[in-house]
Amino acid sequence: MTSYLLFLLVILYASIPPVTLFYCLKWIYKDHWIYGWHLFYFFKWVFTLSFLPLLTMQNLNLGLIPQHWYSQAALLITCLLAVLGLRYAIKKKVLYFYLQGVYASFMEEILYRGILFALVQALWNNVWVTLFITSFLFGTWHLKNYYWSGKRGIINQFFYTSLIYGPIFALLRIFSGDIYLAVLFHFITDATCALAPDWMRGWLVQGGRGGNYMDTYRNITKENKHISF
Length: 229
What we know:
The chain is mainly alpha-helical. The protein is 69% helix and 3% strand.
C-alpha cells in the first residue's frame, strides 16, 4: 500500500463523513426537511460499514478484533449496559437520544480509533503522531453539529473532544490494541448523558438546551418553539 493511497484515504475519511452529516443536520434543524433524518442515519450506516473494503489491505490493523480478555469483557459490558439502560430511557422519554449515544459509541470508534487510527499509523508509524492527528480530527468531526448545538456549542465540543476525549480514547486504543475499551468509555460518556438530569445534559452535550430537548423522531425544539414536520 503506497503512502499516496494512505494519505488520500485519510483525507477522504477525515472530510467526507463530517461534511455529509453537517448538511444532513442543516436539512433537519434549519430547513426542517423530514427526510433529513433518513439520510442522516443512512450515511451513518454507510460510514460505519466502510471499513469492509479496508479488510483487504495488508498490514492495516483496524483494531476490530478483541485482543485481550478485558477487551472482550468491555464489549460485553457495553452491550449489557446498553440493554439495561433502555427501560430507564423509555421512562425518562429520552429513548431516541439514548440510542443515538449507543450507536455513536460504536460508529465513532470504528471511524476514528479503527479506520483513521489504522491509516494514520500505517502512514507515519508513530503512535504519538497518530494520537495527535486522530484526536484533532475527532474534534473537527464535532463541527458537524453546528445546526444542532450552535456556534458556542461546537466550539466547546471541538476543544473537549480534541483535547480530552480524543486523546483518552486513543490511549485506550494504544494500550489494548483494539477499539473496545474506547467503545465502553465512549458509551459511558455519550449514552448516559441521555439519562442525566436536564441541566446536566444541557451542559454536557446540547449547548445549554437542557430541558428544552425534545426526544422525538419528527419533532424538534428550536428557540423554545415546537416545530412539527
